[in-house]
Design brief:
48% of the residues are buried. Helix 8 runs antiparallel to helix 10. The chain has helices spanning 2-21, 29-32, 52-65, 118-125, 144-149, 157-160, 195-199, 233-247, 259-268, 297-311, 323-334, 336-343, 358-372, 406-419, 435-441, 444-457, and strands spanning 22-24, 45-47, 69-72, 90-93, 109-113, 130-131, 167-173, 179-182, 208-215, 217-218, 222-230, 251-258, 282-290, 314-319, 347-352, 377-383, 388-394. The protein is α+β, with helices and mostly antiparallel strands. Helix content is 36%, strand content 20%.
Length: 473
């Protein structure tokens, strides 16, 4: 009976969506596994609707057949939230829904469909005087729907906020095929619960976002980028505080990475070049931007750098003098996830702590990780401006894996971040990877409220079951 129902559902979806919109089970390889190849089961097919109306019909058919549905964007997530936890469900890809409406320059907003790739949105805004202030390493493949689903942050989040701060309105298809139209273009809308915020970070467990009204910001006419080699992470935190004081409203990025990560990147990505004379334990990447040519950004950044040279905080540094040099500096930071992936096995932890506690966290975390597995290689990098550290581990040299200690690392790092007033899930979400950790480290009241929300929006538990909460798995 189950097989017959599955066959009928596949036939109905094939009829509804046509050959471009329905991918048969045997051809679903590109959608099956997550980016880290840790999670994912074979779906019965991939639905690729071209309109909201088609997706609504897909959801209604799956609900009638009691078949789980997992929405998938660019599949660049690192917590296993965009693939199936068990075989037989349907993956929904909105890649065919990729329209960008004309820019609303007066209201500084734009309407996009969920399948729009972030880099393409950046390109569409070139020359308009406006920008969408979100940049991530995977912007060449990450889709707007996925970014909303995970409440993405990125390098400019400390100035402009997470994506929930950049969403004015949403259109969402619910589990039973009902469509919620919340496509309002205004920032102020206090007519009850802020439903749009509920879907930001819900990872497709409450509904599937199909369209969004995004808030834009003025594009900078002047931009200055600097790479500084600093004495240690304490010096990096101190330097960031100085830049906040001297250039706070102009700062758009405050990033950091370690010499371990730099070495991985330089050794595995052939065309990377290190522009400084001296290496150091830690590096700070700073960027400032402003719409006026009258603000002396370069002077401001240079003066803080020179003060750092004078007191030994800064060991070496360079200011980019062209867009080519700026892009080259950013690649040293952005290529690190790919560099570590090329090396071998890896564990990725997405953590946040108060920025002033970052150096202390890194020191204590390194000791704790070495106690778990002596010689484990640690590659921390991330967003110094908001205390978000991507804490990545590679096995000791000469070792292929982590000797079954993966969970031990996750628990000790999560507990340490929580103890220091931070989070074990900063911007990648819980996905499948961190549900048990959330149950252990967060208060039962918080987890119970999330389960009740899930049940209220998805009574049958068919939307991305097993993600965020165990309900429906």
């Amino acid at each position: 009976m189950i097989k017959t129902a599955a066959v009928k559902l596949a036939e109905d979806l094939r009829t509804l969506l046509g050959p471009k919109g329905w991918i048969e089970e045997n051809d679903t390889g590109p959608w099956r596994r997550d980016w880290l190849n840790r999670y994912g089961e074979t779906p019965s097919g991939v639905a690729r609707p071209a309109t909201t109306a088609e997706l609504a019909q897909v959801m209604a058919l799956c609900a009638d057949a009691e078949v789980p549905v997992v929405p998938q964007g660019g599949n660049t997530g690192l917590a296993g939230g965009s693939v199936l936890g068990r075989p037989g469900g349907v993956i929904v890809s909105l890649a065919r829904m990729s329209a960008i409406s004309p820019i609303d320059t007066a209201g500084a907003s734009v309407v996009v469909e969920a399948g729009v790739v972030l880099a393409r949105l950046h390109q569409a805004l070139e020359g308009t005087g406006l920008m969408f202030p979100m940049h991530i390493g995977a912007e060449g493949s990450a889709q707007i729907g996925g970014l909303i689903g995970t409440n993405a942050g990125g390098s400019q989040a400390f100035r402009y906020g997470m994506i929930q701060d950049l969403v004015l309105g949403l259109e969402v298809v619910l589990a039973d095929g009902t469509v919620w139209d919340g496509m309002r273009r205004v920032q102020k809308d206090n007519a009850g619960y802020q439903l749009r915020n509920l879907f930001c970070g819900a990872e497709g467990t409450l509904g599937i976002v199909t369209r969004a009204v995004l808030k834009l910001s003025p594009a900078p006419d002047q931009q200055v980028t600097a790479l500084l080699a600093v004495r240690d992470m304490s010096a990096a935190v101190e330097l960031a505080a100085r830049y906040r004081t001297q250039a706070g409203e102009f700062l758009t990025a405050l990033e950091f990475f370690s010499d371990v990560g730099l070495d991985m990147a330089l050794s595995t990505i052939p065309d990377l070049r290190f522009p400084l004379t001296h290496r150091s334990p830690a590096y700070v990447l700073i960027e400032a931007g402003v719409g006026s040519a009258h603000v002396p950004l370069e002077t401001i950044l240079a003066e803080v750098m020179e003060a750092g040279f004078a007191d030994g905080t800064v060991i070496d540094g360079v200011l980019a003098t062209s867009e080519v040099q700026r892009a080259a500096l950013w690649r040293l930071r952005e290529e690190q996830p790919e560099a570590q992936r090329r090396e071998a096995a890896q564990l990725k932890h997405d953590i946040s702590v108060p920025p002033e506690a970052l150096a202390d966290f890194l020191e204590r975390a390194a000791i704790a990780c070495d106690e778990i597995l002596e010689g484990v290689r640690i590659n921390p990098f991330g967003h110094l401006g908001d205390g978000n550290v991507h804490y990545n581990l590679s096995p000791p040299l000469g070792q292929d894996g982590f000797s079954g200690l993966e969970s031990a690392f996750a628990v000790i790092l999560g507990k340490l971040a929580t103890e220091m007033g931070g989070s074990f899930a900063a911007e990648h979400g819980l996905g499948r990877a961190k549900v048990a950790l959330a149950d252990e480290l967060r208060e039962p009241v918080e987890r119970h409220l999330m389960t009740r929300l899930k049940t209220a929006f998805d009574t049958s538990g068919l939307l991305n079951p097993g993600v965020i909460v165990a309900a429906g798995e």
